[in-house]
Write a structure and sequence with these properties.
This protein is α+β, with helices and mostly antiparallel strands. The protein is 42% helix and 20% strand. The protein contains 8 helices and 10 strands. The chain has helices spanning 2-14, 19-26, 110-119, 121-147, 150-161, 179-186, 190-202, 221-225, and strands spanning 30-35, 40-42, 50-56, 59-64, 70-76, 81-82, 96-99, 103-109, 206-207, 215-216. It has a 4-stranded antiparallel beta sheet with strand order 1-8-3-6. Strands 2-7-4-5 form a 4-stranded antiparallel beta sheet. Strands 9-10 form a two-stranded antiparallel ribbon. The longest helix has 27 residues, at 121-147. The radius of gyration is 19 Å and the shape is globular.
């Protein structure tokens, strides 16, 4: 019976993690806050008291050096947690979180989240797997930044913002993000971003007219896969 139980546990752990169901089923006291584009959710050095979950919108995590230079370390979207460092005893925020578009953020008190993870073991395992998956993506972002061309980095960033590769259906409409922000994300200039966006448009990889949100076609993946 033990091997069958182990297989059953593994199967449950591999199921898609529905964070909203996870939080709703726990009956946690939590707060929902709405943020506008470019609103600061928390700043580097702020007290670390909550785990946060993105119900809608998008969030940029960035770090500011002593010299005043900003580096974007992650771009997150609906279904992602952030601010989880408090669960590991982090007392101050190591990065700043900024809304990149109108966003709805759910705040869960650190102590309540710890109690939930201790109480619901199956959900706890899936939450950990969910966070590890996000951290792997952040590592891939760093590798992408170090070794790939700015054209390939932009293509990969657009696909990630469109939720390409998620288990649910990818959203072809990308959140409205300025070319300046895209340039910051991939470490290049706005003029280079504009050049590559126009190139992608001519090749049919994306659709945009400067007014409506940018649409991503799956054919853009060819830029990422091309050596």
């Amino acid at each position: 019976m033990e091997p069958r139980k182990a297989t059953s546990d593994l199967t449950r752990a591999m199921l898609p993690f529905n964070a909203q169901v996870f939080l709703d089923s726990a009956g946690l006291a939590r707060k929902v806050v709405r943020y506008g584009r470019d609103d600061v959710i928390f700043a580097q050095g702020d007290p670390c008291k909550h785990v946060m979950y993105i119900q809608a919108g998008g969030v940029k995590l960035s770090v500011l050096s002593k010299a005043g230079r900003e580096a974007i370390v992650a771009m997150l979207g609906p279904g992602d947690f952030f601010g989880e460092g408090c669960l590991a005893g982090q007392s101050l925020r190591m990065a700043s979180a900024t809304a990149i578009t109108q966003s709805v953020i759910l705040l869960v008190d650190r102590e309540k989240m710890v109690q939930l993870l201790h109480r619901q073991h199956t959900m706890s395992d899936r939450f950990i797997a969910h966070m590890l998956s996000r951290n792997i993506r952040i590592e891939e972002d760093l590798i992408d930044q170090l070794f790939n061309s700015s054209e390939k980095r932009l293509a990969r960033t657009l696909l990630l913002l469109a939720r390409y590769g998620k288990q649910d259906k990818p959203a072809r409409m990308m959140p409205r993000i300025s070319q300046e922000t895209l340039a910051e994300m991939i470490g290049t200039t706005r003029s280079r971003v504009n050049f590559f966006l126009n190139k992608f448009k001519k090749l049919g990889f994306i659709e945009y007219n400067g007014e409506n949100p940018l649409k991503i076609n799956s054919s853009l993946l060819s830029v990422v896969l091309h050596d």
